[in-house]
Design a protein that fits this description.
With 496 residues, the chain is α/β, with parallel strands linked by helices. It is built from 15 helices and 21 strands. Helix 6 crosses helix 8. The model has no long low-confidence stretch (mean pLDDT 87).
Length: 496
Amino acid sequence: MNEILGYIIGETTNTELSFLSLGMPEIGGYVLIKYENKNILGMVESVVQGCPVFDEVLSVNDLIKLKNLENEDSYYIMGKIKVLGDIENKEIPRVPPKPGTEVYIADDDSLKNMFSDGHLKIGKLISREVPVCLDVNKLCSRHLAILAITGMGKSNTVSVLLSELNKLNGTVVVFDVHGEYKEIKSNNSNNILNTHNVEPQINIFNISSSALCDLAGVDAQATKQRPYINKAIKSVKKEKKEVDFNSAEDYVNSIIFELESYIEINKKDAESIQTAIFRLEDMLQFKNHIIRLHYNPIEEIKDGHINILPLDGLDENDMDIIISYISKEILKNRKKSFRNNEPKPVFLIFEEAHLIVPQNRNTKSKYYISRIAREGRKFGVGICLVSQRPKTLDQESLSQCNNLIISKLIEPSDQSHVQHASENLSEDLLKQLPSLNIGEAVIIGPCLKIPAIVKIDKFDGEYKGEDIDIVNIWKNNYNNENNEKRLYSEDMYGDL
C-alpha cells in the first residue's frame, strides 16, 4: 500500500501539477497519482514552505510575538510535480487529474520498472536506493554529453561509463586530452578493464596538404608558402605512391626536394619557398614521433577494448589534426563495414570537448565530429562530449547529443547554452543544477525513460583525473628539501 504524501490543488494540466503536502517531500523525489485506471509517475521539481501567520509582517517585534503563537499546524508545504508518464506505457496522460486527487510516495517496484531495466548501471536515484541503468543502444546511437564545472565528478562519471561498457565488451575510443585514463585500472577482480593504449599518430601521406601545412606550422595566412607546398605534394603524389616510400621522412624529403627545384624557377618567391622548406625540416625534427607512413589507425583499435589515445604533451594544433584524422578514418571505416553487412559499433569519448569542438571558431576536429554527430548513428558510431565549459562548446554539436548527464552548473550562461541545445531540459530541472553536490547529476534523454536526478556510482579503481593532495605534496617537498640540506651540512662539516 502506497503512503499518501498529499493532495493535488489548484488548476491541473496533464504535464504539471501543484499539490499540498502532508510532510516535507524531497526535490527530485518520485510520486504516484492514481486515476483513469492508471498509475502516473511524477517527479517533485520544487517545494515551498509557508505560514499565513507571517504573511505581510514587516516588524521584527510583531514577528517575535506571532512566533510565540504559531504552531506546526500553522505551516503549509506546497510542491510542483512534473508528470513523467504512466508506469506501464511511459506515456503522458491525455486527461489531467482532478483537484483533491491523492498523491502517493512512489514504491520501489514502480521506480525499478522505470529506471533499472537498462544495460549500464550509472548510479542510483538521489532520493532512493533504486539503481539507475541506461539503455546503451540509445546512449550510443543518440550521442551523449557529460557537462559540469571543474571538480564535480566528470572524470569519475567517464570512468564508471568505461567500466560498465567494458562489461558489455564494448569498443570505445577515448581521446584523452590530459592523459587521465592511460593508466586507468579497476580494483574489482570481477571486472578487469580491457584497456589498450593507442599512440597518437597519423599517416602523413593520407592527410590533406592543408593539414600537412598546419602540422608543419605554416601560417594559415602564408599565401605563398601553402600554394607551393600544395603544388609540391601534388607533383610528388603524381609520380609516386605510398608504397614507393620507406618512411615518413623519405616522403617529406621528397616534398622538400621538389620545393628546392622551384627556387631557381621562381626566384622572386625564393625566400617564401625556403621558409616552407625550413618548416618541413622542423616538422621532421620535432614531430617525427607523430608522423608515420604505411599506417592505418583503424588497425590499432582493438574491438571489445577501451582504447585510450593519450594526447597530453601535444599542443592544440597537433591535437586537432590527430583527432580530426582518426575521427575521419573511424567514420569511413564504419561506413564501409556497415555497407558490407558487418557493422562494428564504436563509442568515441572526447575529453575537453570545448577545445576541439568550440563555439566561436572552426577546427578540423569540429568538422568531423559534427559530421559523426549527424551521420554516425546510422553506422554505429556514437560520440560523447565531455566539457567543463558548456558555453564555449559548439551548440550545433551539443544539440545532436540527445542524452545529457549534467552535474553542477552555476553560471547562467552555461545553463542557458545547455538549455538552448536541449529541448528536454525543463526550467525546473535547470534550477536544480546549482544545488547539486559532487557526484550528483541530472540525466535526461532517450537512454533513460524519464529524467532523473542521480547519485553517480563511485568508480572502483584508479585514474589520474582526481584532485591532487596539494597540502601533502607541499609537506613532502619541504621535508625532502630540509633532509637534503641536513645531509649536505653533515657531509661538509661532519669531521670538524
